[in-house]
Design brief:
CATH topology: Rossmann fold
Largest sheet: 5 strands, parallel
Order of helices and strands: EHEHHEEEHHEHEHHEH
EC number: 2.7.4.25
Shape: globular
Keywords: ATP-binding, Cytoplasm, Kinase, Nucleotide-binding, Transferase
Bound molecules: cytidine-5'-monophosphate
Strand order of the largest sheet: 2-6-1-7-8
Subcellular location: Cytoplasm
Number of strands: 8
Oligomer: single chain
Family: Belongs to the cytidylate kinase family. Type 1 subfamily.
Domain Cytidylate kinase: 6-224
Length: 227
């Protein structure tokens, strides 16, 4: 068992990212946002003018693009070819194209290997690492010391995402976001490789009625109980 690793999985809009980042800061741990890595590959695909559903060409972009992912919880940075893309990877173009890109087996192989390297490096220092994604407990670190699977009803998740969009200056409506949340849920949980699902030994945490402080408190409690 890897005691220094907290694996946080679940669909979008469950409060996962904010809570993961805050949990890492609270524990003095590193923080790895694996969704940002799939989003960065997707941005590189779009910039190269490649069709996101063309698996062969998508895999080629993933092999050749220079991707960097930081693991500082206070300032999680993502760069493509040396340029920070933190804002751009959250935009609607990337969000629309990220599911087919992340369903390409070779993309997953490359990124999972990279994620394991970042995790191994973090474990050499004190403090451990909080890793957030869709397949962390099932594929990336199946021996993580604590696995949490966050859920929330679709309406609550759409409302959270819409608030985040507005806070970042992106126009969106709850209805459009709800449609996007449902589309990605279906795509991510029915894909052939590493579909989104809870690990058998994951603790499920329903965040529908919780705010960020509530989610964080529940996670800290789970970490403490694991000792
Ligand atoms: O977490 P975030 O919404 O940024 O993830 C974006 C997309 O990246 C997800 O909808 C999913 O398709 C993909 N993803 C994945 N595996 C992960 C993390 C994200 O397939 N571990």
């Amino acid at each position: 068992e890897l005691r220094g690793v907290v694996a946080l999985d679940g669909p979008s809009g469950t409060g996962k990212s904010s809570a993961a980042r805050r949990l890492a800061a609270t524990l003095g741990a590193r923080y790895l946002d694996t969704g940002a890595m799939y989003r960065a590959v997707t941005l590189a695909v779009l910039r190269a003018g490649v069709d996101p559903t063309d698996a062969e060409r998508v895999a080629e972009v993933a092999r050749t693009a220079r991707l960097e992912q930081g693991d500082d919880p206070e300032r999680s940075t993502t760069a493509v070819d040396g340029v920070d893309v933190g804002a751009e990877i959250r935009g609607p173009e990337v969000t629309l194209a990220v599911s087919p890109v992340s369903a390409v087996p070779e993309v997953r192989e490359l990124l999972v290997a990279r994620q394991r390297e970042i995790i191994a490096a973090a474990l050499e220092r004190a403090g451990g690492i909080v890793v957030e994604g869709r397949d962390i407990g099932t594929v990336v670190v199946p021996d993580a010391g604590l696995k949490v699977y966050l859920t929330a009803d679709a309406q609550a998740r759409a409302q959270r995402r819409t608030r985040q969009d507005h806070a970042s200056g992106r126009a969106s409506t709850v209805d459009a976001t709800l449609a996007d949340v449902r589309r990605r849920d279906t795509y991510d949980s029915t894909r052939a490789v590493s579909p989104l699902r809870p690990a058998e030994d994951a603790v499920e945490l329903d965040t529908t009625a919780l705010d960020l402080a509530g989610v964080l408190a529940a996670l800290v409690d789970l970490v403490e109980r694991r000792g």
